[in-house]
Amino acid sequence: xxLSITLxxxxxPICNQSMHKIGDSxxxxxxxxxxxxxxxxxxxxxxxxxEVIRRKxxxxxxxxxxxxxxxxxxxxxxxxxxxxxxxxxxxxGFLVTGLEPTEHLAKEARSxxxxxxxxFFPQTENLLNKKYDIIIFNDxxxxxxxxxxxVQGIKNHLTDEGCVIINIPTSDGLIFKTTSVxxxxxxxxxxxxxxxxxxxxxxxxxxxxxxxxxxxxxNGFAMHYSSPLQYFTIQGLWKRISxxxxxxxxxxxxxxxxxxxxxxxxxxxxxxxxxxxxx
Length: 279
Description:
The protein has helices spanning 51-68, 84-91, 103-111, 147-157, 174-184, 189-194, 209-217, 237-242, 247-259, 261-266, and strands spanning 5-6, 9-10, 20-22, 26-28, 35-37, 74-78, 95-100, 115-118, 132-138, 158-169, 205-206, 221-229, 270-277. The chain is an alpha/beta fold. The protein has one domain (5-40, 50-277): Rossmann fold, CATH 3.40.50.150. A seven-stranded mixed beta sheet has the order 8-7-6-9-10-13-12, with helices on both faces. The radius of gyration is 18 Å and the shape is globular.
């Protein structure tokens, strides 16, 4: 089922229902809560000050792969950026390949000795006839516009016993819900920031665990495992917030996240989900 946009209306790719418009850029499916942005998609740049949190999450993901999918040997990291996950997975003993559409990021990943395929998933011809035990999207799935094309590409390039792992922000997170309330009262900047509006590659989709599960189940997958992931650490938080926001917005956001850090850590704005093909 394709994401269809006609005459200003958006049809939910999960429920096939007309979505409710929010402001100028966003749409919400009132049935499954899937959200869509009409911002122009594109190849992205690396978000700064995420090394600490990514190292924790990536090590956790590699441990889960070993526990849940002990037969897995080969990994394709879609949107590998500079190769941070590739390094951690390689150190854990996996055979890793990256895919990256941004030329200078792919070049940097190759400088560390990684095999990196150029282009967008799954259109690039360099993927032809290649299959992997694990296909992982680390904060990249939400940036790719055509969901049906992504899911079909996963089917084409996943081994029979393989698994696709989606590491993604959630619309059920406390921070996202707080910015949604602020947006309704006319305070729009924090909400735009959650969507990465104005970034080279803004979010096109926002999922929660249930509608992401439904999307994959509709396309012949079964959810094998899911878990919250840590969304942020205090170390590096200021640089992460202030890289695209004004000083005033940044300071209020930083204080909010510092003060509520224990609560925000319990109800994370990020999760991972593992899906395998049904027989």
